[in-house]
Each structure stands twice: as C-alpha cells, then as structure tokens.
UniProtKB/TrEMBL annotation:
InterPro entries in alphabetical order: Aldo-Keto_reductase, NAD(P)_OxRdtase_dom_sf, NADP_OxRdtase_dom
SUPFAM superfamilies with a match to the protein in the record: NAD(P)-linked oxidoreductase
Domain NADP-dependent oxidoreductase stretches: 16-307
A Pfam cross-reference name: Aldo_ket_red
Domain of life: Bacteria
Keywords: Oxidoreductase
The protein's name: Aldo/keto reductase
Length: 332
C-alpha cells in the first residue's frame, strides 16, 4: 500500500481509504461480524484511513469501529469523522448544527464511542447555513490546540467556503463525491483545492454501487438510500447501467473488473485524490484493493471517458431535498 500526502497537512495516508457508513446505515442490513472482519482486513492490507460520521446509525458506526480497533495500535489508523447532521429516533434528517458549542459536544461523544483520545481529521458533514463557516472552523481549531483533533477537513462545500475556511486554519482535505459519473468538482472545486494545497478524499467512487459492475435493477430494498436516489429510479437506472456495460467492455479487455477500473480512474486523476471505498464485505474489499494494480495509460483514460462521457449520467446524485443543503452544488 502506497502512502501519499493528505494535502499540505503534513500527514500521509494510504492511497485508498475505507468508508464505513454502509456497515451501519442507509444501504440496508449488514452483518456486524463481517463488518468488523472487513475493517481488520483493510488495516492488515495497509489501509490507514477509516472514514465515518457520528450520525451513521446514530452512533452505531463509531461504536462498531471502536470495537474493531480494540487491541490495535492507535497509530495504525487515521480516523476521519464527520459531524453536525441531526436525526431523530426514526432516522429522519432534521438539519445541521455546526455552532461552536455543538462542535465541542459532538466531539466529546465521538471520542467516547470510538474509544480514542483524539481524531485525526474532524469535519462538518455539511455547511450550517445559520453559522458562519469561520465560527465552525475556529471551534475545531481550538480543539486542535487542545490536542483532541489533529487536522481539519471539509465536506461538500464550494470554492468560496473552502477559501473562507482555509483563511481561518489549514485544511487537510475536502471530502466530496467524485466518480466517472459525478465529475462536477473538476471545473471549480478541484482547482481551488490544488491552489490551496488541499487534498480530495473522494467518496461515491462507485456511485453507491451503481457503477460497480454488480448492481442489478431491483437490488435496492426498503430502507436502502438507493431506493429513492434519482440515479436508481426507473428511466434513469437503465441509461446508467448502459454506461456500465460500455465500461465493462474496457475492463474485460484489460482483464480487470468494472469496479477496479472505475476506482483506478479516480486514483489516476491525481496524487492529491484519495478514493474512499465503501466495502462492507471482505470480498468487495479485496476487489477494490485490486484496483491498486491497475495501470491506466493515456489511451485507457481516453477510452474510459469516451465510454462514460462527462455529464452522461441520468439523474442527480442526491434527491433535491438533500441537494439544497449542499454548498458544493451552489457553484453552478
């Protein structure tokens, strides 16, 4: 496993990270023992970056990771945690809270659930429109000074907010969706990050399984986010799966899987981009790790982008009710 700089933060992370959300929430039932085994397998394979959110399963995901890390050396992993999303007992989303006192409160619970005394990268999950981003970043900066947080990250914010946040404290990375069928960040967001020395930790590199090569119509069940995701809806999913089949022909010619070539494409966009893989099982993790051995030359990149042209995806990446909370979408 290669270790690469996470922006100009001074820390290095594995060139691929593990996103743990699906082990607790939003993608239907998961197996606890298999989830923990997958985290162990990731660490044993050299993955250091584990990504979670305090609202994934209303704390379940942090407790799961905490259990998986028992007996492991703390410096084997770098924990990236998002905070601020509010939910009720039924799981309904209630908005975001990034007030300074809320930041301190969220972190205290996170440290307890994970069973650690510091977080490597702490970030607001979304912009709180009622709180200046300077206030939120300033509050996390105080936690850095106190030793509870090592680095500050951002999530799903646009160019102006990135600049404003970076003016308060150095930002290690921006976590944002990026894949062959979600390339909107290339026009404005990536250039600003590169100007400021901020890395991109890319989630959704397989578009929630849609371009994994394994997805079939009807796979989304009740309780699965994909059941209401625009790209998985009838009329859209057929067009999107046609793109997958075009990608499959390229993958087959190289002797790799669709998932591997899709992940490799994201990684090939720059050393400052770290793909986050949302594997919930060891077999899917092993497949994703195989992308590290996929070498894409200029001809491969051209063929991939011809098979899946920019803006070719049918449907938005989130339902409209969620997009309105995403500052990253306001660049357009």
């Amino acid at each position: 496993m290669r270790m690469i700089p996470l922006g100009n933060s001074g820390q290095k992370v594995s060139s691929i990270g593990l996103g743990c959300m699906g082990m607790s929430d939003l993608y239907g039932p998961s197996d606890r023992a298999e989830s923990i085994a997958t985290i162990h397998a990731a660490i044993d394979a050299g993955i250091t970056l584990l990504d979670t959110g305090d609202f994934y399963g209303m704390g379940h995901n942090e407790m799961l990771i905490g259990e998986a890390l028992k007996g492991r050396l703390r410096d084997q992993v770098q924990l990236s945690v998002k905070f601020g999303a509010l939910r009720d007992a039924s799981g309904t989303w209630l908005g975001y809270d990034a007030r300074p006192k809320a930041v301190r409160n969220f972190l205290a619970y996170t440290l307890q659930r994970l069973g650690v005394d510091y977080i490597d990268v702490y970030r607001p999950a979304r912009l709180d429109s009622d709180v200046p981003i300077e206030d939120t970043i300033g509050a996390i900066a105080d936690l850095v000074k106190a030793g509870y947080v090592r680095h500050i990250g951002l999530s799903e914010v646009g160019p102006q907010k990135i600049r404003r946040a970076a003016a308060v404290h150095p930002i290690s990375d921006l976590q944002i969706e990026y894949s062959l069928i979600s390339r909107g960040i290339e026009d404005e967001i990536v250039p600003v990050c590169r100007e400021l020395g901020i890395a991109v930790t890319a989630y959704g590199v397989l578009s929630r399984g849609l371009i994994s090569g394994h997805w079939q119509r009807g796979d989304a069940k009740s309780g699965d986010f994909r059941a209401m995701s625009p790209r998985f809806q009838e009329g859209n999913v057929e067009r999107n799966l046609a793109l997958v089949e075009a990608l499959r022909r390229i993958a087959d010619a190289k002797g790799v899987t669709v998932a591997q070539i899709a992940i490799a494409w994201v990684a090939a966009q720059g050393e400052d981009i770290v793909p986050l893989i949302g594997a919930r099982r060891r077999d899917r993790l092993a497949e994703a790790l195989g992308s590290q051995a996929v070498d894409l030359d200029a001809g491969d990149i051209s063929a991939i982008e011809s098979a899946v042209p920019k803006n070719a995806a049918a449907g938005a990446r989130y339902p409209e009710a969620q997009l309105v909370h995403m500052d990253s979408e306001r660049q357009k």
